[in-house]
Amino acid sequence: MGRTDRASRVLAASPATVYGALLDREALEAWLPPGGMRGRIERWDPRPGGGFRMTLTYLDPAAGRGKTSAAEDVVDIGFVELAPPERVVQQAVFEADDPAYAGTMTMTWQLAAAGEDRTEVTVTATGVPPGIDPAAHEAGLASSLANLASYVEDAGRRG
């Protein structure tokens, strides 16, 4: 069944703003890749039953241990549930020859109001493939949440 990993963070933005960043192609390319990576979305269909394909590239190929190649992770993400502005459920499948990365990981992004224009975001990954190092995954989830916070909080200051 795989394991479950979880991370959360309170962001200085409304649930509607955060939800919008979960379903905007350019926003996802900006905030979803964890530190040390950049992302590129190759296919985009933001509806239940749709999804996207993202290539994550290590900025320092020597430091990377990609799942698809030495320097890249390619992942197909399907949108299972879109419940504005509280929840987005995705299923992620990595393109990899190594069976340690096989299977479908479910990512649930839960948003809860945490005061005026504040949102607690909790991301829960279930069915995490055993090849994904727990400490690296925890750091990656925390990094993506920090990137999301910067993205939505900077948008609030600009807009």
UniProtKB/TrEMBL annotation:
SUPFAM superfamilies: Bet v1-like (SSF55961). It comes from the Bacteria. InterPro entries: ASHA1/2-like_C (IPR013538), START-like_dom_sf (IPR023393). CDD domains: SRPBCC_CalC_Aha1-like_2 (cd08895). Residues 13-153 form the Activator of Hsp90 ATPase homologue 1/2-like C-terminal domain. Gene3D superfamilies: 3.30.530.20. Belongs to the AHA1 family. This is Uncharacterized conserved protein YndB, AHSA1/START domain. It comes from Streptomyces qinglanensis.
